[in-house]
Amino acid sequence: MENSSVVMLLTLSGLDFPLKYRSAVFVLTLLWYCLILIGNITIVSVIVVDKNLHEPMYIFLSNLCINSLYGTVGFYPKFLLDLLSTHVISHAGCMLQGYVIHSSVCADFTMLALMAYDRYVAICHPLTYHSFMSKQRISALVLVTWLVPLLSMFMNTATLLGSRLCGSYINKVYCVNWMMVKLACASPPGNAAVTYFNICLYCVLLVFIVWTYVRLIRTCLVSLENQRRFMNTCVPHLISLFTFSVSVLLDVLYMRFGSVDISMDLNNFMAMEFLIIPPAVNPLLYGFKLAKIRRTIINVVLIRRKPAVCALQGSKP
């Protein structure tokens, strides 16, 4: 019975701040999470409300922002709670958190691949772009970009169900499937095969993204108009892809090949970087760089200010 209670309750490494600093870290984390929520919800709302933004590129961008909201909700509420209490999570809660964070990371890659392909068709095949990107095809592409990561990570998580754990300490601030595999008394059947299949799948996606941008750059070198379109629409995608890829790569490399010589603070930062930087930077990046979104946001702000100004002027004697 005692062993069962140890297995069912897992302890996360957490952040070992002194009590006097925890309140400050809690407030800063809460403010950062609010920034992520406001930024991504703003982009999604603007794209939904403005019919001029009902184009493939902006529809795909809105799904990228929705995925940021999905992934961060799997981390920040629990992390904020851990800052004020013990770093304990149930076995079921750990499995759920691991699934949400993993599937969100994979969905980011599939959506960035889709956005790269959209720009490739728009710039390299402009005459057939609008006929190719029909409403039905857009819906199908969006559906696939969600289903592939959700199903691939479901298969990975399903291989861990029923595994008996011989430990309860997770050396990370959140749950990940690899840590659950390391805690298992025996290697979960099928986990290695599913994991390698997923790795191969997303390596292919990464190669596809690189191929599309190589083709884009080659096409843009021969046309000044294409160069302008590339700078306006592709640069935000490249920056987003770079920041996300580096953040995930740092975490994966440390988790697989990490050294005990690395401090816990650095370990925790590397683990949280892809949940801190990309979800907050992407809305700012696309909001400022993409002219249509920037104009719509400015117009909404000005429209809201005008009635307020008129009301103040009307109240003056």
> Numbering strands along the chain, what is their spatial order in the largest sheet?
2-1-3
Secondary structure category: mainly alpha
Overall form: globular
How would you state the average pLDDT, rounded? 82
Tell me the major beta sheet: 3 strands, mixed
How far apart lie the N and C ends? Answer: 78 Å
Helix content: over 70%
Descriptive report:
Helix content is 79%, strand content 3%. The chain has a 3-stranded mixed beta sheet. The protein is built from 12 helices and 3 strands; from the N terminus they run H-E-H-H-H-E-H-H-H-E-H-H-H-H-H. The chain has helices at 2-8, 19-49, 56-73, 76-84, 91-124, 126-132, 135-158, 177-183, 191-220, 224-257, 264-289, 291-315; strands at residues 9-12, 88-90, 169-170. The chain is globular and about 60 Å long.
Give a nutshell description of this structure.
By secondary structure, the chain is mostly helical. The chain has twelve helices and three strands; from the N terminus they run αβαααβαααβααααα. It starts with a helix and ends with a helix.
Task: Give a quick set of tags describing it.
3-stranded mixed beta sheet; 3% strand; 317 residues; mainly alpha; 79% helix; single chain; globular
